[in-house]
């Protein structure tokens, strides 16, 4: 199994070595899976459980004090599932996989997605905050201005890293998955790029991609699908570079992307200060 994992694009993390060890371990565990779909979920679970990453436990807190998780996953042959705006769900990617495997739909949202998760055996009712994120939320002093002022304030005060993702192939089958708690102090119920097909995640016969960064421009541009489309012309390394260059030209946004083709070649690029990855 070939695997590439990312721990989110953004500013340099506080403990890069510890996070890198966790990412490397996640990639190693994923490589033991029998199928790419299991591999990407095996990679994401430890990251969703680790408060050092913005997904699951310790993830970004929305403006009403709630952490809501989103995820999406897709295989080379079009199996697709996503789930979003879920309170109390650590392993959002497991819910996305269950949507793909057990329903005729591609996206479930909110309380109904949480009920579906519980009925499918995915753990719910977890407190996704930590002492640190509760303190960050309680001590924050958001401005009174309009949404634009608010976003500038979020960028200035909550610049950490964003989202986790993985792509895996056994040389034949391929899967991509992305999981997040979104943006700090977003409007309650805001959903970004991560559970939107072609934006936060995408896979087809050519390969797969997982995106990370500013969700609104990523969603408008369709970054993950654009990165996979570059595989018509380039190998994965240049596909990732071209995708981020095109994304920046088109949107001015900040993002990163990982790309894997079905032969197992990898690429990763960002226009942020940092994005940690691990490959196996
Ligand atoms: N890229 C994660 C988000 O904006 O929700």
TrEMBL record:
InterPro entries membership: Ntn_hydrolases_N, Peptidase_T2
Write the Enzyme Commission number(s) for this entry: 3.5.1.1
Chain positions covered by the region annotation Disordered:
1-32, 125-149
Enzyme's top EC category:
hydrolase
TM ranges are none
Q: Which GO terms describe its cellular component?
A: cytoplasm
Pfam families documented for this protein: Asparaginase_2
Residues at the site labelled Cleavage:
162-163
Tell me what reaction this enzyme catalyses: L-asparagine + H2O = L-aspartate + NH4(+)
Instruction: State the Gene Ontology terms under molecular function.
Output: asparaginase activity
Tell me where on the tree of life, at the top rank, the source sits: Archaea
Where, in this chain's numbering, is substrate bound?
Answer: 190-193, 212-215
- Catalytic positions are 163
- Which Gene3D superfamilies does this chain map to? (Glycosyl)asparaginase
* Protein name, as recorded: Plant-type L-asparaginase
Q: What is the lineage of its organism?
A: Archaea, Methanobacteriati, Methanobacteriota, Stenosarchaea group, Halobacteria
